[in-house]
Fold each of these.
Amino acid sequence: MKIVVLTGAGISAESGIATFRDSDGLWEGYDPMEVATPEAFEADPALVHRFYDERRRALEAAQPNAAHLALARLEAAIGDDLYLVTQNVDDLHERAGSARVHHMHGELRSAWCTACDDRHVWHDPLGHEPACPSCEGSHLRPDIVWFGEVPYGMEVIEAALHEADLFVAIGTSAVVYPAAAFVHWARGRTLELNLDESAASEDFTQSRRGPATELVPAWVDEVLAGLPRD
Ligand code: BV8
Ligand code: ZN
């Protein structure tokens, strides 16, 4: 059975990473809509760097939770039949043991040089404009897909959705496109695992309410036991 899983900020909430909209849209005093844009970076690079430097640093204290671990268990069991795409820019899926994670909105732990186009694994701040390891220029930006920019690997995601028997959305408010449209592109059954009603709950074959650390392990157990609950 081919499964596509999309995760959003809600899967990392119980790891202590703030979501976008539950903390009434403010992210430790920033409004992502104002800061996560190329225009904001152009206008005030120091502010945008501060926003990402703080979140990159906060990652060090965060730990993957039972939901991340359950998805890693699912990948270990069904391998390439699972396609995991995340809107999140944290590395908790990887730290839980998932080997194949598609970060459609980029990653906090990657720096992208706008001069030579190289990308580098990056754990430190970027605010002081460090030199690019490849070209020595000081043109490193967060390797994050901002509003108005094209998410990474859309064609691969679309192909996976068209082949999937099941599409599962976990911890996302379905406000941001094109991720919010995936439920419509999915060929097979669709399941939503979310704490609250989302903007797309009605569009899913089934939508379950609850915290990811409860819903995701239970769902993975169902899949592994071959007993899909209808
Ligand atoms: C693009 C990186 C063109 C930044 C992010 C229509 C069509 C196409 C585009 C648009 C359109 N309408 C508007 C647009 C433009 C825009 C957009 O969607 N705007 C919105 C505000 C209307 N989209 C774009 O600009 C995108 N680019 O469209 O390019 C294109 C189009 C199609 C095909 C090719 C090209 C780029 C969007 C990417 C922006 N970057 N992230 C950063 O992280 O700083 S978006 C950011 O917010 C996140 O990455 C995430 O994707 C997004 C939404 O957040 P969620 O993950 O859903 O989190 P949220 O807080 O909203 O919700 C949390 C949910 O979890 C809640 O439902 C809650 O109930 C639940 N929850 C909470 N706790 C728990 C829980 N669930 C379970 N357990 C818990 N414990
Ligand atoms: Zn460079």
Amino acid sequence: MKVTIIGAGNVGASTCFLLASKNICSEIVLIDIVEDMAIGKAIDISQSCSAFGVDTLVYAQNEYSKISNSDIVVITAGVPRKPGMSREDLLQTNAKIISSVTDEIKKYAPNSIIIVVSNPLDVLTYVTLKLSGFEKSRVIGMGGMLDSARMTQAIFDELGYPSSKINSLVIGTHGEEMLPLARFTFVDGKNLEEITDKASLEKIIQKTKSGGAEIVKRLGTSAYYAPAASVCILIDAIIKDKKTIHPCSTLLQGEYGSNDVCIGVPVVIGKNGIEKIEELSLNDKESQEFIDSVNAIKKMINILKI
Ligand code: APR
């Protein structure tokens, strides 16, 4: 398996390092407009492969023709959030970058599965899908998996259960209007709503929603280790054809009562990418929140006039 990672910054390089250490692909190509930085990181990660005794070949390239035959292409190119910025503030800048990157993927890796990581995630997943012309199964937005990991951490912080006993689910946009779903989150086999009071539940939900912003505030840039871990889980599920269910941004065509929008919902991930959308039966409150989430994304799509 050949994986290309476009953008060798914090998220791209962390993904490359973690993926290389897993020894599940034959080649990883790093691409960045800052060529020497990408080469330097690729050399460092290659040396980590030597230390681990891993045979994955890691190298950097600045010519897009070298991404040909990639099975998976991960897009992390773009600018990250700075303190005080929302993911939406990145819209125009990152949309331009993603458009140029998508043209190259379409040209040189037309059979690949694309994983979009750059923000604002759902809008950029939509842009990538439309500009690439790929089937919707081959364009996956990685956002809900990260938010679900943050919810799991918030449950641990609040209730003390280990992450191995927690199965969290966050759907909707990878942004302020995300939906941490207590009704579909299970802790030690029990529903989260059953084992927590209203105040704790509210804390968990708020902590999940602000999990990314807190890192930006303290670190001065956005998160990269947990995003990289989430991308690696997705790549592993594709390479091993696992058919596991993860919340990812995908194009809705009538599912959840919505159309022509990419948004996070539970999907089955296997060798073909997104193989199925799972439809949850949302109650009235959840459905309304989901519609709010859809509208927030559509507003940004309209700004771009895609
Ligand atoms: N082609 C290739 N690489 C590019 C391009 C481009 N057209 N434009 C920018 N880049 C590169 C930058 O040179 C930089 O190395 O993308 C990289 C982004 O890395 P960082 O600035 O470290 O940002 P990072 O934290 O990795 O976040 C990247 O992922 O999680 C999202 O919100 C985040 O949109 C942001 C993206």
